[in-house]
Write a structure and sequence with these properties.
Chain B: It holds the Pfam family Amidase. The structure holds two protein chains of two kinds. Chain A is mostly helical. Chain A has a domain at 60-89. Chain A has three helices and two strands; from the N terminus they run αααββ. Chain A has helices at residues 7-11, 20-31, 63-71, and strands spanning 76-77, 80-81. In chain A, strand 1 (76-77) and strand 2 form a beta hairpin. Chain B is 41% helix and 12% strand. An eleven-stranded mixed sheet of chain B has the order 1-3-2-4-6-5-10-11-9-7-8, sandwiched between helices. At the A-B interface, helix 1, helix 2 and helix 3 of A face helix 10, helix 11, helix 12, helix 13 and helix 15 of B.
């Protein structure tokens, strides 16, 4: 099933519309001549070598960090983050 | 100008002034200033650190070069326990839970953060008018913009409210305000300084960048912040840049400039003539100067903004008011997200998020987004070829002088085009320094990737040449 999603839905911004100022930029790209259409065939990407990955381990946050994260909760109850009920559509 | 860091270090070490007096003076100047550079001052933290520096000096202990030096932080960097707003309504009460790597390295070296600085919200702007804290006013003429997005940082340095400041440069956000306020501003090679703890705008070009009043101060701060960081896997290890090395400018044999930048109809005639007269002075010193071909400005600007908007749409999707931020409740979770984002993001931020989602959508991504990636590769290839021919590329920082406050917001497309000379070097991930010389808004010095040292060398050469 395909469903067309408009930019206001994609952006989670009510009433959002594409802007003329930005569309002018995109028109330049549409009309540009790119000599290379495969952007993944060279060494200019910032890929990390497999030999250079960090350890896959859990690092415990400090108690100060945890406390600030809780302070930043928009709505809190007994130390838990309160969110709206998620409604399936 | 001489190094402010060395000068203040000597004054502190010689007990000509106390660190508490120095920090108090900076805090007072920041609070009294009318340029709208301040989002918050860090009084308690700064004075506590200053007291410790004074105690150390009183005990006869030696202090490090950066110990006790007051600095500013663009309000997009995490500093544990301080408010980090990104100059936005959404995060106006957000408190950093941790500290950015670059800032932690400065703290470890003993530098004292005194202020979180005004900027365009989430880095979205070229004038520091897109902010909830009031438009930043230019240090030289307060009727003009301070530049952006790191406008507060550049003005603070220019007005001596901070000794140096840490801005962020995605498409010119350190270099352009540095040029507008006649100070030095460096965008290092992408990855030289860890981005961990810098709020992400466009991750593939975001760079941490120092702003200061001398090449030497840029060098000192750059050395401290550089290095590989496991928390940012695009960061890389780099050698320290030695003060003596950058005084020897004999290895610079050739300089290039982009002919189409200078021949453009959009360039201010005075900036053009000043730039060309600088080129003549360089030739007189026996350096070969070559005209180079480059992409048209509209292609550079459009490629940059397409990719930056796509990346910011993705990066800012996390800001929905669930875990932090100024949540606005509505009838269900999706509606809460939408109203929170609609009410709390500025018009410019919304414009960029919407543009990003447009180009990432099915049916548009091949024609615009993927093509922009291909153009970016072609731009990088162009740079690689250029640096086989020349050691340095020199350019103006901006086509025009700073606009009056209020004008940029009226015409976003014109604002995007004003970034014409800075965005190409961001796409190329190249080290580029603004120096406050040569034209009304300065000059940009660019070298090949990872050759930040050569950029500083050429800045020293220009200091003595023009």
């Amino acid at each position: 099933m395909s469903k067309i999603m408009t930019v206001d839905i994609l952006s989670s911004i009510k009433g959002a519309q594409p802007s003329e100022a930005v569309n002018k930029l995109f028109d330049v790209i549409k009309n540009a001549q790119a000599t290379n259409n495969n952007s993944f065939n060279d060494n200019r990407n910032n890929c990390v070598s497999l030999d250079d990955l960090r350890e896959d381990e859990v690092i415990e946050s400090s108690s100060v960090e945890k406390q600030i994260i809780i302070e930043n909760f928009p709505k809190e109850k007994k130390g838990y983050l309160v969110v709206s009920k998620i409604i399936e559509e | 100008m001489e190094s402010q860091i060395h000068k203040i270090h000597q004054q502190l070490a010689n007990k000509e002034m106390s660190c508490v007096a120095l920090v108090t003076e900076k805090l007072n100047a920041l609070k009294a200033n009318t340029h709208n550079t301040v989002n918050s001052t860090l009084d308690d933290l700064a004075l506590d650190l200053a007291t410790k520096v004074d105690a150390k000096i009183a005990n006869g202990e030696s202090i490090g070069l950066l110990e006790g030096i007051p600095f500013g932080i663009k309000d997009v960097y995490m500093l544990q326990g301080t408010t980090t707003t990104a100059s936005s309504d959404l995060l106006k009460n957000y408190k950093s839970a941790y500290t950015a790597t670059a800032i932690q390295k400065l703290l470890d070296a003993g530098a004292i953060p005194v202020v979180k600085e005004n900027c365009d919200s989430f880095g979205h702007g070229s004038s520091s008018e897109n902010t909830i804290f009031g438009s930043v006013k230019n240090a030289i003429n307060p009727n003009l913009v301070g530049g952006g997005s790191s406008g507060g940082s550049a003005v603070n340095v220019a007005k001596d409210y901070t000794v140096f400041s840490i801005g962020g440069d995605t498409g010119g956000s350190v270099r352009q305000p540095a040029g507008y306020n006649h100070v030095y501003g460096l965008k290092p090679t992408y990855g030289r300084i860890s981005r961990y703890g810098l709020m992400a705008y466009a991750s593939s070009t975001d760079c941490v960048g120092p702003i200061a009043k001398s090449v030497e101060d840029i060098r000192i701060v750059l050395n401290v912040m550089s290095g590989k960081d496991i928390k940012d896997q695009t960061s890389y290890a780099s050698a320290e840049i030695n003060a003596e090395n950058i005084k020897d400018t004999s290895e610079i044999k050739s300089v290039g400039y982009f002919k189409n930048f200078i021949d453009s109809d959009a360039i201010d005639p005075k900036i053009k003539s000043d730039f060309l007269s600088t080129i003549e002075k360089i030739k007189v010193k026996g350096i070969e100067v070559k005209e180079l071909d480059f992409f048209q400005s509209d292609i550079l600007v459009s490629t940059y903004y397409t990719l930056a908007m796509a990346e910011t749409a993705s990066n800012l999707s996390r800001l929905d008011g669930s875990n932090y931020g100024n949540r606005i409740e509505d009838k269900n979770l999706k509606e809460s997200y939408a109203i929170t984002r609609s009410e709390n993001f500025s018009e410019e931020t919304k414009r960029r998020i919407v543009g990003g989602n447009q180009v990432l959508s099915q049916g548009f991504s091949d024609e615009i987004y993927l093509k922009s990636l291909a153009l970016r590769d072609a731009i990088s290839e162009n740079f690689e070829d250029d640096f086989k021919d020349v050691d340095i590329i020199l350019s103006p920082v901006t086509p025009s002088t700073p606009p009056e406050i209020g004008n940029s917001l009226k015409d976003p497309h014109a604002m995007y085009l004003s970034d014409a000379y800075t965005v190409g070097f961001s796409l190329g991930q190249l080290p580029t320094l603004t120096v406050p010389q040569g034209t009304e808004t300065g000059l940009q010095i660019t070298a090949a990737k990872t050759n930040d040292e050569l950029v500083l060398k050429f800045a020293n050469f220009l200091k003595d040449t023009i």
